[in-house]
User: Fold these one by one.
Assistant:
Number 1:
Amino acid sequence: MGRRKAAALALGIAITLAACTAGSAVRQGVRRPVLRMSGETNIISALLNLPQFSVETTDIGDSEKRLIALQQGSLDVAVGVADATYLAFNGLLPDRSRPMDKIRAIALLHSAAVHLLAGPAANPGRGFRGLRVVLGNPVGANEVLGERLIKSMGIARSEIRGEFLPRDLSVERLLKGEVDAAIVIGRPPQEPVVRALGGGARLLDIDGPEIDRLRVYYPLLRRMVIPRGTYPSQGSAVHTVGVDLLLVCRADLDKEIVYELTRAFFEQRPENTRIRPDPQRAPAAVIPLHQGAARYYREREVSR
């Protein structure tokens, strides 16, 4: 009898081990979900090396273009500004009366500040009319914000020589005197702004009635202060404006994938990323949360 029990036990162990080995092989053979993403490099880079996903990145323009791609299903995850996302979801964007109801929020990230830089030899105290101005990054979070900022100052686009350039190139041309002013949008401190100030450029205040005029286009735009010392040789605080950034996705993206992506974003981000969203503030998005993201926040709250 003892030999029979021993043999049965050995057979059971063997079957269990075989099942575990087979299960492991199946798991190893499962392809990782492919996520198509577009957005600011310093944010998307936090998701590139997550073992759960295979990430394909693409530059397709500013927030509005990314939201259109999400709505059409050609993109899975993107970074957008809160204002454009709110307007798009509610069908309030200019020339787009139909709501973009196929986008959902994953997380409220942080505020991006508008940096208005004047070149070493420029004299913006006389106004911006006739100046050569870089209005922003053509694939940045909000391509049109710089143009509308100039318009809020009572200056028509035709009264400046405006163009859109990548941040590094805009700073390079600013320091060479090939442009007079440049707008850089992002969370301080921005490395291109550090280089610009180191080369003699100046960071200008954005304050006064133009901010109120900007709110016509950006109801969620808010006043910001870049504290003294944020940048080398910045001896005083700089008053400016900023807008929140959102991580958004397709509404029909699998809820398990979005749950895992949200969890990984907050718990498994690479150590070298500067992006540290507050998980307490993250659910406070201006559009509905995706079911997968909402589940993560509920479970996190319960576990506290």
Number 2:
Amino acid sequence: MKTIKEIFLLSCEYLKKNGVENYKFSSEVIISKILNYKRLDIYLFFDKPLKNEELDKIRIFLKRRLKEPLEYIFPKIEFYNCKLDIDENVLIPRQETEQLVDLIVKKLSLEKSLKNKNFWDIGTGSGCIAIAIKKRFPMLNVFASDISKKAILTAKKNALKNKVDITFFLGDLLEPFFGKFADFIVSNPPYVSFEEYNNISSYVKKEPKIAFLSEDGIFYYKKLENSMVDYLKKGAKIFFEIGYKQKKQVFSLFSKSHWTEKIVLKDFYGKDRFFFLEFN
């Protein structure tokens, strides 16, 4: 009989071979759902053998994953100790975004005090980042915005589900925050260019195009760079998720002297994925 670890590795290999980008996260979700475990708990039981009927179910869902987003297979998912309902109006939270949250948590944990500090999540989608941060740091004032009314409704339901108090705004990027100032801003904006869009998997195209499609890949970073200075407190910290080919572009874009402490970090797959900087 094969163990959870063996099936996990085979599942990752199968999904990766067939072009599923977030193959590790997908494998974790499928196996944990079939076994009725929390997603990350599968690592605690790696040596446990699986029954034939469990293996059969896992195979069925792996085949479905080649054609369908996770949201259509399992509408309820776990994300950084949060339970989220995902629908067709928002992107499925990726493993990379969960890593982004973990990196932010480590950064915020170094702060002397977070009391009365303002944390903004720009383009919140399902609300996953804002909810995870508020749940971890309840003393933070957390605000989130999105241009999609349907996404905001989904995010509000998820906030209620996780019993966190977040203020949501409907509007484009920073526009809803006029007259307000942030200590921390996170954004995972659309960063797939038109050229890249033509080459992505068909199942990804089933997700809302508005949530990941950008003209040249850095269109929204340009808009944020042009407007953020009017919304930031001195010493504010900014956290971005970026396309893995965009390191040079974002460094060049945020080249003015008031952008400092710039760093790009890699994701689990060794790709440049996170861009952190400060405003002075």
Number 3:
Amino acid sequence: MANNINFGKIYDSTWWGVGVTSNNINWGKSYLDLAGGGDERFIITVKTDNAGTSATDKFTLPTTGTGYAYDIETSDGQVITGLTSGTTITFPTAGTYDIFISGSFPQFYFNNTGDKLKLLDIKNFGIYALGSTSQAFAFWGCSNMVISATDVGYFGDVTNFSLAWYNCSSLTSFPLIDTSSGTNFSAAWLGCSSLTSFPLLDTISGTNFSFAWRFCSSLTSFPLIDTSSGTNFEFAWQGCGSLTNFPANAFDSNIASNYTNAFATTNLTTQSIDDILVSLDTSGVLNGTFNQSGGQAPSATGQNAITTLTNRGWTITTTA
């Protein structure tokens, strides 16, 4: 602020990469929301000669549904405008390029097909997911992709995250995006085998967590996220073979009864399995199913919780 002038507002029209020209200076080329300080372009890196359905000098942006109105610039100098659906970009030679997307781009839709192996990095979310309510199947199969972006995109209205990052096996970390509206997280991170940690995402609205973190085999611990609305945890952490630490009180307020194979083939410590069993007991839910295998057996504390749960109609299987 200076003399009651909000200089950031001068450049509102550059948010989506629409140029503002003054004295022959194209201010829009900065693509900055100067009031917020961030680049609003969706920026990705691709390697065109990785395996895919397009030729070795091309990359296809996969889309689904409506809501697309976007422009593209590429690191080799191409400008493509007025796009409303998926498109294939042809580069001068095979190689690695950055693609800068501005406008409205609600969702990628790789769905385990196309040029999924050509996507190397999400460098900036920018306008990505603006106007989207579903990210289902978005990056499924993008097994060479990492996320170096430090911004959060526009995920706040997304309700469906099912299979969104399924088999993104090169991800070692995941960003703290807004998942507060998400209800369906089924298989969202299934097969993300290189994830070593998981952020404290807002999952308070989530109902379906089946297969959500299955085969995230490098996770050693899990945060205390709110899954109290969840009804289905079938296979949720199954195959997380390095998972030793799970938080206490995780299920105190949960309403779910389906934890079938939720912790099968994990590596939980006695303290963690005790905490899980005590938390399920605290929830007061009747007639549930719970399975754990691998790792350590529960102590007397966990066994007491098992006794109470079985008296309430639960079927409990744990490491002996």
